[in-house]
UniProtKB/TrEMBL annotation:
One GO cellular component term noted in the UniProt record for this chain: plasma membrane
Taxonomic source organism: Dyadobacter luteus
Gene Ontology biological process: siderophore-iron import into cell
Protein's recorded name: Iron ABC transporter permease
Molecular function GO labels: transmembrane transporter activity
Length: 368
């Protein structure tokens, strides 16, 4: 018998494996969105009542690092950049990243395109405790003594977000099998109850308290400083760093809970990890910036439409995309009605609503 000759494929023509393609795609998504975020940050730091050119920004940073000895910029610009602009840009990046990645992960967990942090009680719980502190005007937490009064509202908001989310999670286990549907229904019920309590306390508030409650609920980064940045950073970093490791399980969850469990996904552990990481990022963000809507809802849809449904790409892209969106939105909010400042929650809702409707219409059009 004549031996069969097996031709070896040319290595130059070998099709890259799926993991290689995935890593390449993640690299390009990170590069594109990371570059856009850098440009957005420079633009945000440059624009304001006192204009600072990109060249002056570079010189300010270079002098701070000791790379140049004789600066030519105005000292006032350096103070504005380091004390006002840079902390605000950093806080916008952190808050936007926390909201974006939380929205993407919760949409994957619930397999619901309109899911966000409000479904698990983060926003409503933070609002309730914030209103409670504003109305009672209590100054507790003596361990932070001098700054306790200034940061009591933020700490109480974070605690409220965490406790409400924990309540929703525990109720979903007690009232049902702990599935996504049960947790979603428990979240709706608790949100309604907490919203009613918040409304009752708002009804009883004085004019001054009502003004404070309204301003907090509209969201703002006007109180940004290095202390608030350092307070939020660890929580958001935990969410952004560890959430992408859950992307494989979230990809399998698209098939359904029973199918994902059959393929080796521990649904209880997955649900607990996603909820905890999302609560860390969103709870800390809401605590320092108030209620900011539509970032966690719209950004994942934009990233999904642009780069595909793979959760590894989606989670990383949503963190970067949320940071970009909130940085630009904050820049607009503090300059569009200068010298006053438009609450950023109003701006994100005004811009996010029509854009979200357009995304839904475009997705329907593509399916036809």
């Amino acid at each position: 018998m004549q031996a069969q000759v097996v031709n070896k494929p040319d290595t130059a023509c070998v099709i890259p494996s799926a993991p290689v393609k995935r890593k390449t795609k993640i690299f390009w998504v990170t590069l594109i969105l990371g570059g856009t975020l850098l440009v957005s940050a420079v633009f945000s730091a440059s624009v304001g009542a006192l204009s600072i050119t990109p060249g002056e920004l570079g010189e300010i940073i270079a002098f701070k690092l000791g790379l140049i000895d004789t600066p030519t910029y105005d000292e006032q610009k350096s103070l504005v950049f380091w004390i006002i602009r840079l902390p605000r840009v950093c806080l916008a990046i952190l808050v936007g990243a926390g909201l974006g990645i939380a929205g993407a992960s919760l949409q994957g967990l619930f397999r619901n395109p309109i899911a966000d942090s409000a479904l698990i009680g983060v926003t409503s719980g933070a609002s309730l405790f914030a209103v409670f502190v504003i109305m009672l005007n209590v100054k507790f937490l003596g361990i932070i003594s001098e700054v306790g009064g200034a940061y009591t509202l933020s700490i109480a908001s974070f605690v409220g977000a965490a406790l409400t989310t924990l309540l929703v999670y525990q109720l979903s286990r007690l009232t049902g099998e702990g599935g996504m549907t049960t947790m979603l229904l428990c979240g709706i019920a608790i949100n309604a109850f907490v919203g009613a309590l918040t409304g009752l306390m708002t009804y009883m508030a004085t004019d001054q308290q009502l003004r404070s409650i309204t301003f907090w609920s509209l969201g703002s980064l006007g109180g940004a400083n290095w202390t608030s940045v350092m307070a939020v950073a660890p929580f958001v970093f935990c969410s952004v760093v560890f959430m992408p490791y859950l992307s494989k399980a979230l990809n399998l969850l698209v098939l359904g809970e029973s199918q994902a469990a059959a393929l080796g996904v521990n649904m209880t552990v997955l649900k607990r990890k996603v909820v905890v990481l999302a609560t860390l990022g969103v709870g800390a963000s809401v605590a320092v910036a108030g209620t900011i809507g539509f970032v966690g809802l719209v950004v994942p849809h934009i990233i999904r439409s642009a780069f595909g449904p793979d959760h590894k790409t989606l989670l990383i892209g949503s963190a970067l995309g949320g940071a970009i969106v909130l940085t630009l939105a904050d820049t607009i909010s503090r300059t569009i009605v200068a010298p006053s400042e438009l609450p950023i929650g109003i701006l994100t809702a005004l811009l996010g609503t029509p854009f979200f409707l357009y995304i839904l219409w475009d997705q329907k059009r593509r399916k036809v």
